[in-house]
Specification:
By secondary structure, the protein is mainly α. It is built from 16 helices and 4 strands. A 4-stranded mixed β-sheet has the order 1-2-4-3, with helices on both faces. α8 runs parallel beside α9 and α9 packs across α13. The longest helix has about 35 residues. Its main location: endoplasmic reticulum. InterPro entries: CAXX_Prtase_1, Peptidase_M48, Peptidase_M48_N.
Amino acid sequence: MVESIFDLPVEKQIFYAVLGFSWTVYLWEAYLSYRQRRIYSSTTHVPQELGKIMDSETFEKSRLYQLDKSNFSFWSGLYSETEGTLILLLGGIPFLWGVAGSVTTRIGFGSEYEITQSLVFLTLATLFSAFTGLPWSVYNTFVIEERHGFNQQTLGFFLKDAVKKFIVTQCILLPVTSLLLYIIKIGGDYFFIYAWLFTLAVSLVLVTIYADYIAPLFDKFTPLPEGELKTDIEAMAKSISFPLTKVYVVEGSKRSSHSNAYFYGFFKNKRIVLFDTLLEDYSPLNKSGEPQPEQPETGDTSSESKAKPKNKKQGCNNAEILAVLGHELGHWKLGHTVKNIVISQMNSFLCFSLFAVLIGRKELFVAFGFNDSQPTLIGLMIIFQFIFSPYNELLSFCLTVLSRRFEFQADAFARAMGKASELYSALIKLNKDNLGFPVADWLFSMWHYSHPPLLERLRALGSIKQD
């Protein structure tokens, strides 16, 4: 059997190698998920080590939530892998390329307009992906997230948001792709350098404008009101020379009760963004059932989002928020952000360099049904998505390991700022609010967790007495 495979034409060997590796990765991921599901199913009581930091009710809620998510992930992953396999076996990619060619011909463009055909192909492919992914997204949001008390959206809001995301994505994706294809076409022998520089510039621009111009299209950002918290945040930023210019609160509660915080910006223009669900005194979810002042009518009314009563307060107090931000600012002070950008760009340059070597290999195109043409966009898809897949898996694992190391370092930075106790309690609160399950299979967590498990982080912070 092995000999017969190697006796096949090289393009067939490439095709079956890609397909085989894809299923190998899927089966490996399914095995890891199975190991973790056994943990969810069998660990029904709070382990003794967790007795002081998690009550049995929250433990059971988190167990059931993560079990539901794991089961959903199994079926959605199986569907995705099966769909991808059928697309390859049935020649879905060359078929869609042909449909895109027919569309461009009908609107007056011949086969020489490859970039135009590529943009039509890209639009059709993203439309197909959006429609096939929509039922899974709806089920995840309105069954799983709803069942466990996280979803705050109505179906109308969800669908409007999905349409808006698709339009914004196309407005960015299509011009960027057309320019990239043009650069590759006219770049000569060193096109890969120009293509890399272009993608670097695009990524820097997107990071710069995202929170100011793109994110506000979906969520409401308001400056953090003057008060003790804002004063303390500014003082902490100043103490480590973090060039903070603004602090925003984002209305994350209108779509989910999950919480988060991040910073963005380059050089001397840094901003901090806090989810309202992170702030104990700010979250609307803590105010359900309390008398509320009348609110002026806005575009986002209760018909689009729904605050649900909570039995207990969500979020962190001011001291804990400062500890969380101390951790986030530690990533900046320790150079983690810059290191991640450098790694990303080194990887991007390497991939474009290898792409330049491989793009002329006709057998790569023939392997996926392109016998008479070698479109640049298809070459990008074949090489970056299929040929590089083993490398991408290895890189992803290495970055996961590095991310965990960075998280420990950022925790240590917050501890050095004198915020170990507050970060300790904040991590426990955030784990409870987000129904994180604190028990993990070692192999599953090693492969998947970009953040260390809760117990490992608490141990690293030290044995601190809690109320």
